[in-house]
From TrEMBL:
Gene3D superfamilies: lambda repressor-like DNA-binding domains. It holds the Pfam family HTH_3. It comes from the Bacteria. Transmembrane segments: none annotated. InterPro entries: Cro/C1-type_HTH, Lambda_DNA-bd_dom_sf. It comes from Pseudomonas machongensis. Residues 5-59 form the HTH cro/C1-type domain. Keywords: DNA-binding. This is Helix-turn-helix transcriptional regulator.
Length: 67
């Protein structure tokens, strides 16, 4: 699943570690989500949307999900 997390994080000047701290996850989790190696759980997706003050649909592109 494609996402805009790296773009949104960089636009705010946050490191992966800073975003991870805000979300209560590891920096490795943020990296895995950004690179598409890990799709977040629904609660984590809501947390990500909340941190960026956007809807989940504005961050994640489910049409790019592997079938």
């Amino acid at each position: 699943m494609n996402n805009r997390i790296r773009e949104l994080r960089s636009g705010r000047g946050w490191s992966q570690a800073e975003l991870a701290e805000r979300l209560g996850v590891s920096r490795q989790t943020v990296n895995a989500i950004e690179t598409g190696r890990y799709d977040p759980s629904l609660p984590l997706a809501f947390s990500i949307a909340g941190v960026f003050e956007l809807s989940i649909e504005e961050i994640f592109d489910p049409s790019a999900a592997v079938q």
